[in-house]
Amino acid sequence: MNAETFDPRRYAGQLTARPGVYRMIDADGEVLYVGKAKNLRKRVSSYFLRASGNPRIESMLDQVADIEVTVTHTEDEALLLESTLIKQIRPRYNVYLRDDKSYPYLRITGDHSFPRVTFHRGSRKVSGRLFGPFPSGSAVRQTMTTIHKLFRLRNCDDTYFANRSRPCLQYQIKRCSAPCVGYIDEASYARDVADAADLLEGRNERLVARLVKQMEAASSRLEFEQAAATREKIAAVRRLQEQSHVVGGKGDFDIIVCASGGGIACAVVVSVRGGMHLGHQSFYPTLPEGTEPAELSEAFIGQYYLERKPPPEILVGVEPVDREWLEQSLGERAGRKVSVRYRLRGRRARLRDNASATLEQALESRLATRAGVRDRLMALQEALALAAPPMRMECFDISHTGGERTVASCVVFEGGAAKKAAYRRFNIEDIEPGDDYAAMRQALERRFRRLKRGEAPMPDLLLIDGGKGQLTQAETVLQELELADVPVVAVAKGSERKAGREQLFLPRQSQPHILPPNSPALHLIQQIRDEAHRFAVAGHRGRRDKARQQSPLDHIDGLGPVRRKRLLRAFGGSRQIARAGVRDLERVDGISRAMAQRIYEHFHQSG
């Protein structure tokens, strides 16, 4: 809708009073903001009735050219949809949590008579039992170490397990009971697995009671060594309980504290399960200027638990906006009551204070790092005589093996940090194999044509991995596309190809520019160049390996997987199929004479 014809007050007045989600959109179709509402008409109208006094909101409203709404059945659906859309669209005026990783779990496998304990990240549709999610990978590994010490469950893979003839080092250091060589029977191992599951689920008292019974039974059978080992296990669980009580008492809860400063935001999540402190993790959400602490708290919590099951209690530093609504929505997702508490006393207040201290330290460290990055950018500006610090940089590299499956990479750094969502790869075609100059030219042409169409911002600095030849290709492409004002530098490894000896080739300079090995500008260039190289190599290897796994039969029109399988079973391989005649081929079930002729011609067309 045209901004000149769009009347926001009139539009808001005709909206439904039902719950839903609204999206503020600018004249270019970009979503500026996503919000939720219990009453769409009332909420959207509130933006345009009077000045908010918030510069961020006023700036956004000046750009609104259209509003779209999605009506939901319930208020909880609106909150869930809002969080989902924010994570997908990442609007400029929303707080959004960049959290691309899947969440870490501890897994006890279920496809073996002697299950193993392992780290798991990815799909939850796996055999066995998953415990978590944990706040970080290190928390999972620390818990795994505790499980191995207490219950001596194996961590080796099934192939290693099946080929053992004597116990490994894990048995020697008392981290495994050696089921691979029969040192423990299946029933006893299953009891240890059950004990570990009880500990992981916080059922410590039940675990201790069962261990006491096992100890007494072993003692009555005069198996004193077994009784002593069980007694040591009980003592270890008791010590763990004591430590847990000091940390957080009983129960499952998360502590979430948020703050912002210096243009960045930080959230720290501390997880306690069954009284066990599982560690903490720091997050750095994208934060629009003028965001209030309560808004930050609500936005972070809603997105953090979008794909995690919330615990019964969430302890926070600042009361979120619409706390009751948030509790109700999280409770719907969890299938039980969820409480968000901000008035705390005693031990829990001290735990929150500790989390706040961790938050303060994380924020200070991030700001210090940002200050260091700013110094590197200013050093790069000075070293290359740029008009301003290069806030957006792109670097290109080429990778191939003997000219096979050439791939070009483009990595993007903004504010001195990698912006991986903006990375691109280009599969290079129709060039002479091994012609790096032609490959670089093709990649640059494809990239900068897209940038001219507005796909992404133009870089403040273009880096090319290579020497004078690659620089010439880049200059030619930029001139042809009328983008000669984009600064470009080629980065060569130097005669000895050692880090710190890089040569920088600049336009209209006959001699390379060499920076001191301790130069912050050089360190930044090396970081970007190495990232481009890594990304290019990974892309090339993936493309090469995929190509080598393909069968020549894959490229025959009309030959599907069932008939391919029959051919391979009949002849034993694609080489034998290539040698077969038409009559031999049509003897295979499902292969007509026409298809047999097509297959034959596919393998003999060059002859």
Notes on the structure:
It is a single chain. By secondary structure, the chain is an alpha+beta fold. 46% of the residues lie in helices and 17% in strands. It has helices spanning 8-13, 40-49, 55-63, 75-89, 137-151, 158-162, 169-172, 186-200, 204-220, 224-247, 293-304, 323-334, 346-384, 436-452, 468-480, 520-549, 561-571, 574-579, 582-586, 593-604, and strands at residues 20-25, 31-37, 66-71, 104-108, 117-121, 129-131, 253-261, 264-273, 276-283, 313-316, 339-341, 392-401, 404-414, 417-418, 424-427, 461-465, 488-492, 503-505. Strands 12, 13, 14, 15, 16, 17 and 18 form a 7-stranded mixed sheet that branches. A 5-stranded mixed sheet has the order 9-8-7-10-11, sandwiched between helices. It has a 3-stranded antiparallel sheet with strand order 2-1-3. The chain starts with 7 loop residues before the first helix and ends with a helix.
Quaternary state of the chains: single chain
Q: Count of DSSP helices? A: 20
* Poorly predicted ranges: 243-248
Strand element count:
18
Function: The UvrABC repair system catalyzes the recognition and processing of DNA lesions. UvrC both incises the 5' and 3' sides of the lesion. The N-terminal half is responsible for the 3' incision and the C-terminal half is responsible for the 5' incision.
Keywords: Cytoplasm, DNA damage, DNA excision, DNA repair, Excision nuclease, SOS response
Organism: Spectribacter acetivorans
InterPro entries: GIY-YIG_endonuc, GIY-YIG_endonuc_sf, GIY-YIG_UvrC_Cho, Hlx-hairpin-Hlx_DNA-bd_motif, RuvA_2-like, UVR_dom, UVR_dom_sf, UvrABC_protein_C
